[in-house]
Write a structure and sequence with these properties.
Rhomboid-like_sf, transmembrane helix, mainly alpha, membrane, about 250 residues
Length: about 250
């Protein structure tokens, strides 16, 4: 049928890394919703990881989100932002450099695990989505974006607007604020400190990731421009001298 073909084509065209993240973020919540596995086994709980060695919780907490009449809307919003902004990073700022994108996701995930243990955060989907959203919004900070009800503002404000929106509808923005914090840590260490303040790059993509996910030449999207470096050109430009493209308006052609 045409509808099934359209869905299949849409799914096939999702970029590889975003597709894996999106797929797991659908499968695991469905498993929990159908009670195939007790959802309690998916939560990030320090005692279960540290003393019972249930290591899988480090991953399942990233992809799982409880689905019920009270959380269904929030889950769909998470999927939308995950899909939209992960694609924009994968095909824009990290176009042709899958290893660097994977490293960003791993860095945010591991940082969220630490924060989650400290602050007793059991689900990491929302803060992970916010960390990715924050990075995109900082790279494209002056791009005009649209939110609900047709409101428009610069991208730099979107994570904060999203956090306030969730405080209004859920009574809490803790997960969003944690995601913003983690996204800011990554952005500061990779972009702001070495490029804007002239410091040396404190973290970088491990070489083994380049072996498994080699960079390719000829990227076409170029969505986003990191902060301009204040360092002399002969000291390097970060990310192996990649020439960044220009930003675009969200939803533009």
């Amino acid at each position: 049928m045409a509808g099934e073909s359209d869905i299949g084509d849409w799914y096939k065209n999702i970029p590889f890394i975003t597709k894996q993240w999106f797929t797991m973020s659908v499968i695991l919540p469905m498993i929990g919703w159908l009670k195939i596995i007790n959802p309690m086994y998916f939560l990030l709980i320090w005692s279960e990881v540290a003393y019972k060695f249930q290591i899988w919780r480090l991953l399942t907490a990233l992809f799982f989100f409880p689905i019920n009449p009270m959380t269904g809307f929030q889950y769909l919003i998470n999927l939308y932002f995950l899909y939209s902004y992960s694609i924009r990073l994968e095909t824009g700022l990290f176009d042709g450099r899958p290893a660097d994108f994977i490293f960003m996701l791993i860095f945010c995930w591991l940082t969220l695990i630490i924060v989650g243990f400290v602050l007793n955060v059991y689900l990491l989907m929302t803060p992970m989505v916010l960390s990715v959203l924050y990075v995109w919004c900082q790279v494209n900070r002056d791009v005009i974006v649209q939110f609900f009800f047709g409101t428009q503002f610069k991208a730099m404000y979107l994570p904060w607007v999203f956090a306030i929106f969730n405080i209004v509808i859920r009574g809490s923005g803790k997960d969003e604020l944690i995601g913003i914090f983690v996204g800011h840590v990554y952005f500061f260490l990779v972009f702001k400190y070495p490029q804007e303040y002239g410091g040396r790059q404190l973290i970088g993509t491990p070489s083994f990731l380049y072996r498994y996910f080699p960079s390719r030449r000829g990227g076409v999207s170029g969505f986003g421009v990191p902060p301009a470096s204040r360092r002399p050109e002969n000291e390097g430009q970060g990310f192996r001298g990649h020439r960044w493209g220009t930003g675009q308006t969200l939803g533009g052609n």
